[in-house]
Design goal:
Elements (H helix, E strand, L loop, with lengths): L5 E3 L7 H7 L3 E4 L17 H10 L3 E5 L4 H11 L3 E2 L8 H10 L6 E5 L2 H11 L2 E5 L8 H10 L10
Parallel strand pairs: 1-6, 2-3, 2-5, 3-4, 5-6
Length: 161
């Protein structure tokens, strides 16, 4: 349940060739610590070009976030992506809505995120592929520090570049 299909150092390392090899035609994206740092309205350097490359290769994309509308909507608009906020990850709700809206079969979908207990577990529960990326930066709140500490024994030993 906590083992991702693949693991990479960064979302930017995930290429259209990797996705084709995995049989993927659509991506469910996490925001915080995957596409930008926590609560940051600006995407990481290189993300806009990465999104363009995915679009050029006809890869559908949608954000699914546990955050509320005021956080998700402006960021999704900046990226030019549809979104599901309050996705209730790891429950299937947000994943189900995203797959329905993108009009793809589950077997062709991957989620990309930085957390085992939300992104990867949610993908496993819903029955889709997953890519774990290293968090851009570690969060500073007690809850996140606890979650990150609990993840350590479950994390992959190696991340692909």
């Amino acid at each position: 349940m906590f083992i991702p299909t693949r693991a990479y150092r960064s979302i930017l390392s995930v290429t259209p060739d990797v996705l084709r090899e995995m049989g993927v035609r659509a991506i469910i994206l996490d925001i915080d610590n995957t596409c930008t740092t926590h609560d940051n309205p600006v995407p990481i350097e290189g993300l806009m070009e990465w999104l363009d490359e995915m679009r050029t290769n006809d890869i559908k994309m949608m954000i699914v976030s546990n955050n509320h509308e005021p956080r998700v909507a402006p960021f999704a608009k900046l990226l030019g992506l549809p979104y599901v906020c309050e996705g209730a990850k790891p429950l299937p709700k947000g994943y189900r809505e995203a797959v329905r809206k993108m009009g793809v079969k589950k077997r062709h979908v991957v989620t990309i995120g930085d957390q085992l207990f939300t992104d990867i577990l949610g993908a496993s529960i819903f029955g889709i592929k997953s890519i774990l990326v290293k968090p851009i930066e570690l969060e500073k709140t007690r809850l996140f520090k606890l979650k990150r500490a609990l993840e350590i024994p479950l994390l992959p030993r190696r991340y692909r570049d």
